[in-house]
Design goal:
The structure is a homodimer. By secondary structure, chain A is α/β, with parallel strands linked by helices. In chain A, β5 and β6 form a beta hairpin. Chain A is 41% helix and 17% strand. Chain A is globular, with a radius of gyration of 20 Å. In chain A, α1 packs across α4. The mean pLDDT of chain A is 92. Chain A contains 8 helices and 9 strands. In chain A, 39% of the residues are buried. At the A-B interface, α1, α2, α5, β8 and β9 of A face α1, α2, α5, β8 and β9 of B. The structure holds a DNA duplex.
Amino acid sequence: MAAIPSNIPEKTVERLSEYRRTLLSCYEQGITHVFSHVLAGMHGITAVQVRRDLMLIGFTSDAKKGYDVKELIDFIGNILDSPEPLNIAVIGMGHLGQAITKYFNDKGLKLRITAAFDNDPQKIGREYFGVPVYAADDFEHEVDEMELNLVIIAVPSEAAADYRLPIINAGIKGVLNFTSKPLNFPLGIAVENYDITTLLEKLAYFVKDSEV
Amino acid sequence: MAAIPSNIPEKTVERLSEYRRTLLSCYEQGITHVFSHVLAGMHGITAVQVRRDLMLIGFTSDAKKGYDVKELIDFIGNILDSPEPLNIAVIGMGHLGQAITKYFNDKGLKLRITAAFDNDPQKIGREYFGVPVYAADDFEHEVDEMELNLVIIAVPSEAAADYRLPIINAGIKGVLNFTSKPLNFPLGIAVENYDITTLLEKLAYFVKDSEV
DNA sequence: CATTGTGAAGCCCTTCACAGCT
DNA sequence: AGCTGTGAAGGGCTTCACAATG
C-alpha cells in the first residue's frame, strides 16, 4: 500500500467524501474519466480546488483524458475508509433517528449502524431497518459489550447532556450531535455539533443580506 | 435602531445563533450576566473567540459583571432575525421532514415551516404538526401563492434534482439540502448542502487518525 | 491549446499579547 | 486581580498565475 499523506485538511476530507459519491454515480453511468472542471461543476466549486485536493492526497492522472473515475474512487477509499467497518449507535429512535438509520443501511459504506437506544418501551426490543433498539437507561451497560466506535445523538436537546458521561466511559471515539445543546468532550473524542436551527438561521441571515 | 455592522463573517453568524440559544437557556434559569469565558466554556471555544465575535457585531458590556444576558439576546436578534418571519417549506415528508417540522414548530423563532410537499397520496392533504402537506407534483404551481422564502430538501437523493428548477422559478432565496446530491443554484440563491454521510465519513477519518 | 500540478499570493479566521478599565 | 476590547501575528484554506505535459 502506497504511503498515504496523513495531514489532510478537514475541508479537503469533507470534499473527498463528496467527490466520491459523485464519482460513484458517474461510475454507474459508465463514465470512466472526468476533467477537474467537470467534477468541480458538479459541486459548484472551482477546478483549481479539485486539483488542489487531489494534489494533497497525491492522486495524479496518468492519462490526459482527465482523472480515472474508478481509480479515484478507490484512492479516496484508501484514505477515508478504515480497514474494518466502524460501528455506529443511534441514540434516540424518533423521526430523526429513524431517518438516519434508514438512510444509512442501504449504502455499502464502511460505516454501519448496529444499535439504537431509546426510552420508549414500545420501541425497545423492536428492530428498525434491521437495527435493534435497546433501553436508553442501559446505555452505559450495553455499550460495553458492543464494539461501538461512533454515536449519533438524535434525542431532544434537553436529554443530550445525559449521555455525555456514558459516552466518555464507553470509550466512544466520535460523536455526531444533532441537538442544539453543544457538547464538549475531552481531547481524543471528535465531536461534530450539527444543529439545524443554526443552519437555518445562518441561511436566513445571508438571504436577508442579499435583499439589501 | 443602532447601525448594525453588515459584513459579519459566516463563522461568526453561526456562533451567534449558537450563543443565543445558550443565552436563552441561561435567561430561563435566571442568570442575568455571563463572562466571556463562561459562555465560551459552554461552547467548547475560547473566551477570545467570544469577545471577538461580540466585537464584530459591536456589542459591549457596560457593566463589568460580564455581558448582560437579556441585552445580548436582543442584540443578536436584531442582527440575525429578519423583521418579518420567514416562511419555510419542507420538501419530502418522510422521517427526516417530520423530524425537522416537529423540531421547529415549538420554538418561537422568526422562522416557521408553513408548508410541506410529498408525493405519497396518503400524506397529501393531511397535516403534520400543524403543517399542511401538498402534492409534490404541484410544487411549482402551489408555491406561487405562498410567500415562501426558504426550502428544506428532505427527499431521497435521487429526487433532489427534480426540484432545482421549480425552486429557481419560485423565487426561493435559500435552500437547505439534506440529500447527498449537491445542488448548484444561480447567484442570489444561498445553498447549504448538508449531507449526513459526509459528516460521518469526516468523523470516521479523524477518529481513525487519532488512533495512529 | 486544453488540462494538469504547484509555488506564491491573498484572504479569512483564530490566537496571541497586551493595554485599559473597574 | 480579573475581565474586556483590540492591534498584530499566525495558521489554514482558496485563488492566482503560470510552467509543464501530452
